[in-house]
Amino acid sequence: MQHPIQILEHYWNFTSFKPLQEDIINAVLEDEDTFALLPTSGGKSICFQIPALAKDGICIVVSPLIALMKNQVSALKKKGIKAMALTNEFKYAEIDTMLDNCIYGNYKFLYLSPERLQQDIVQERIQQMNVNLIAVDEAHCISQWGNDFRPAYKHIVLLRKLLPNVNVIALTASATPKVVEDIVEALDFINPKIFKQSFKREHLAYMVFEEDDKFFRMEQILKKNPNSSIIYVRSRKNTFEISNYLEQKGFTSTFYHGGLSNTEKDKHFSSWFNNQKQVMVATNAFGMGIDKADVKTVIHVNLPESLESYFQEAGRAGRNNEKAFAVILKNKGDEEHVKSQFLNILPTVDFIKQVYRKLCNYFQISYGEGEYSTHEFNLNTFCKTYSFNSLITYNALKALDRTSVITLSQQFHNRSSVQVIVTNKVVFDYLDKHQETNTILKTILRTYGGIFDQDVKINTTLIADKSSTTEEKVIQLLLQLQKDEIIELQLTKTDAQIIFLQPREDDKTINRIAKTIEQQNNIKKKQVASILNYVNNNDICKSVQLLSYFGERKLGDCGICSVCIKTNDSLSNNTVDESIAAIVLALKAKPLSSRDIVVNTKIKEIHIATILKLMLEKDIIEITSANTYKIK
User: Fold this and answer.
1) Which is the CATH superfamily of the domain at 204-331?
2) Which regions of 315-391 does DSSP assign to beta strands (E)?
């Protein structure tokens, strides 16, 4: 058996382990059931990959995310390590061959989903493999108290019955003490070795700023810290729009979201990773495989959905152990927006029952039938047929997917896409000559920003509704515009594929998962409450708030977060006098807004409101009709 450090040097070109990695690896090599709770960038994958490489045989890795599986398999293959992932794109015959390769082909890693594990063929072949380790990645998914709970994860314990002599390692980057306890019990660990690295980041300053103009503060932060940065937003449209805005302001920026092609994703990622672009504006799809040490700032323009996701996204800053910043920009409308975005669209059990019954009727599935039947699916057409809200329906379908009632394909977000390939003038000349296209084409142009600059996903049902016509006529026009070389068009008839995993039983089917759905809805409500409490609590150190949430105790203030700085940076009389003098000098030239005063003086922004209020009370200055300040 090769020594772990030799394997690390050979495949990863590192000469030393990160904290706790070596202890975890040694526990796994000693055949102990092991739990590894390491924060983002803690190097979790190495903790099971090195022991698996050190031993004869193959390691089975259970993961909930196809993209994550593909990412890790690709990385292993580049190192010359034989690995495969049994994703849902493969047919039965292909899986049969792949599993044979795992038995006879010297493969070291087999990645699969917990749903795939339930197939008879997979179980039979696993028993024939020389398995040296079972790794459960994203292990919080097995806990009913965890973020992203997936009931199918409960079946992972089946591997312990199939392979009673093989030890298990569970890994996650986010788990409260209750979740850790639940994972250990669910995986039937015996005398587990639990390794938990402190989530404390000495050099990462957590900041929360109340801002009416988030874009202005964003510019200030990026100018003050002209190093690599990530800006997280909640919509794909915002990634492009904010990136374009920053480019116009003189920053170098690119964007990333789940709707980009793989080629576009690689191109945008590479330009940011190699520091050709300072800023990456992204949705939370930008997460896996990011190991860029010099990220100076992570900015959230919108409130995150939970402290678990925020901690992981914020943790992508400062991995080089230099001072870095994780900033949330919030304003008065954010609280209602986050509730609307994450709570008002939670499907109730009754609504899920309704969606499930209509789904079965939609595909003409008889009672007691439909198991493993596959159907092409268009969400918008389905919702329009039954007058359903599309967002709540989407979440209902995702709940049915998580609870293994159906499988909703990864192509769910694929829609028809369009890019205008001529100039604005040519488009309006075309409109003049083809009056019949006016309403539909103008609706497309007004609905989708950026359509002249990039390939944009469009919703043909929405366009038809807005222009008071039929979807068929919209598609006919798009095809004509493509023929006339006005647009480039990729037309897809469906945006999803649904596989029914259980025979139709209507309410009985949903009753079995009702408790899980209600519990997950309650957890989501608690998570939103926690993030709102975090951004609104300006009395307790931000780092202490985060670490306490994850069960760490006896914590001292960090000294560098927005709360600590405000507490430690009180105004002295000398500072007040100097600041008043500086403001008077600046206002002698012309009236200025509070923002302009900050720019034109060296006064700290946290003090400006207090000093201006004092100057107004002393009649030194007054407010103009343009809401600026001038000397009295």
Assistant:
1) P-loop containing nucleotide triphosphate hydrolases (3.40.50.300)
2) 324-330, 374-377
